[in-house]
TrEMBL record:
It holds the Pfam family Plug. The keyword NADP does not apply. This is Iron complex outermembrane receptor protein. GO terms for cellular component: cell outer membrane.
Amino acid sequence: MGLLSQLAFLLSCSTALAATAEPAGDNMARRHDHPRPASSRTMPAATPKPSAKGEDIQVVGAVSNATGVTNTTPGGGLLAPETAPQAQQTVTRDFIAKQSPTSNPLSLIQYVPGVTLSSADAFGQSDQSSFYMRGMGQTSVGYTLNGIPTADPTHYVPYTSQAADTENISHLTVQQGVADIAMPVYNALAGSIKESLADPAEHFGGKIDLSYGNHQAAREFIRLDSGEIGHSGIKTFASYSYGTHAMWLGPGRSRRSHVDAMALKEWGDGNSARVFLTYNQSSEPYLMSITKQQWKQYGRSAAYYDPTYTTGDYNYYKLNATQQHSVIIGAPVSFNLGHGLTFESAPYYVHIHGAGNNGQTQAEYGYNGTQPTGNLNLPNAEDGYASVLAIDNWNQHTAGFNNTLSWKLGHNELKAGYWYNYYDQHEIAPLSQIGPNGEGENYWGKYPIRGQDGVPLMMFNIHLIQQLNSLFISDTYKALNDRLTLNAGFKYVMMSYHSTNDIPGDQYNYGRNDAQPLPQVSASFQITPHDQIYLDGATAFMEPSGILVYGTYWDGSAPIVDQAHSTNLKAEYSISEEIGYRHTGLVNVTASFFNYNMTNKQSAISTYIGGRLVSNYINAGGQTSRGFQFAAGLRPWHGFSPYVSFQYLHVTTDNNLPRGVDYIRSAGKIAPYSPKTTVNVGLSYDNGNFFANGYMSYVGSQYATYMDDQTMPAYATGNVTAGYRFKKLWIAKSPQVQVNVMNITDNKYLSAGNGGYNAKTTTGVFGSTIAGRAPTYIVGGGFGIVFSVTTGF
């Protein structure tokens, strides 16, 4: 797409969004609930002032740059001041803008204590990367964009690269441990991530960013801000980006097209309405999981897919890939009703449509469940079997709204809310023929293999409808000139599931209902204007994960089950306690001790079935997690801003786990993928023109199985940034050049694992021999370098 066509496209998006906003109102007054947008215009510098939400700002000066950097946030943008009575850390534009434009939000929060990033690519862009928070996987973390829940409602995967381009992210707030009671999430055992888009700019303008790097990386970004349209008080922006790079491990390319857009109207005292949209289209080959033995023998090359196809070669890269389209639409509004009353509502719609493919062997005479298909007439069959493409096609629609009514009266603030969510998912697994070039007839399974009766051959055909109703009430009391804050709240979540699997021989209807009470309390005391202590106690839960919880994975070559649907899973429930301290000033410090007790802990044991990596969720019983986290950062001093964070973690499995007819002796052992220590250190420098930073992350060794009989080694990686801002040049405002280097030493390491019961053969509790199975791992991202040129206009 050419530059002129991109500009025309963005202008049309801005105009279309403006048409959906409210009419003009009188007495315009800007709220400070959201940071000012990153704009190419000269704008006030902003530093977050203490807030329970970590979202308020305070105007302290003026800078002029195209990226929204203010050089006011301690720790180089990683440690904004907070006063929430819980562990919480906000990452601002001072850090975000200096990272690679290819980054997704996961790589932007990797230095927050409690977060362990499992990087999977060289640029921090892939959604195949994952993370842990306080030893719990990403499926245990709530995730919202501008208050809209955007994670996959069945697998809880956040898919953060779909949500927004880095240039449009205003800030990211990480709540380690306790999510806000009003947040529309129901899987936040480990905490939450709140991502916020930058608002449209006050004046007409825009930004262009061009990036190029190794592995044939190229990315273009353009944003157009309308400024205020006439005297309507309406402001809009729209942006478009396209990025691509060759896979850093093996053949293939990653591609991503993305659109962000927003219209904003503010009026009166505390009234606002936003309509925002993000659209994302991406494709990339899968990453191969390998065993530790393969890693030792072949290193990174063990994870390479084959670049050319030969018949029966299921490691051909085009047979192991994924594509996904998504759209997120939200319309959050806030009304000041007077007399201390405020009403907020956030209706939303999220659509995700994707497909993942892999090659496998199929018998010429197949089965749909238990029903014979007859001769499938596979043209490439030899000795009764042929190579076919197995397709996993998922289509998800989510819609709902989250309402909150607040009433401030004297020293009290009473809140009540209602959240409704409707989720409809249809996921099918058809098989398709593979041509001589190694590609299927259709990537999305449009032309499936059919039996003699004309019915498509499928391994599952699941339709799930999930409905949620959630109510909460909370009260906050302040005393001693607002130095003491007490809060108590209660949330009640009711969920219903109905699922069908339209495969002969399978149970057609699955259904269940669940209701969970979720009380929480917190307190904080402002010892001095700069020192605070806090404590909190909370509960959280997470429903069983994955579409195959409610359906069975059948073998297409025989009337047998490859993976049975889960029968013993219950909602995971957590009770947590925390006590913390924070100091704000020239140096910001935050520290907390935490404890979790979990029942019905969900854990994924992943195995390859017919070439496809499939997660089987198990009930791991009880788990106890205890630890300490710490972070400190200096407010920019003569341009310098150092940062350090640390976490100590001790996580144990509380009971023996069932394995076949026996139990493995897992009670009291360290839980998988819970490193005892993680350390992050960094230093940022910015004098207004030249800027540079460097950050190093160390992750201790981690057990990969519940028997603690295989270890994923410790590793350390470092990232470096350098850049220079120029003065205005013709229409280019604050042009700058920047270089980002990821994994600067090209450290070779394993970054994530797929878990397992026991790697070595062991004797069970009842004396039986339990065979071991080697866990598999993802190779950590390699050396990446990205050069960027950015300017406002």
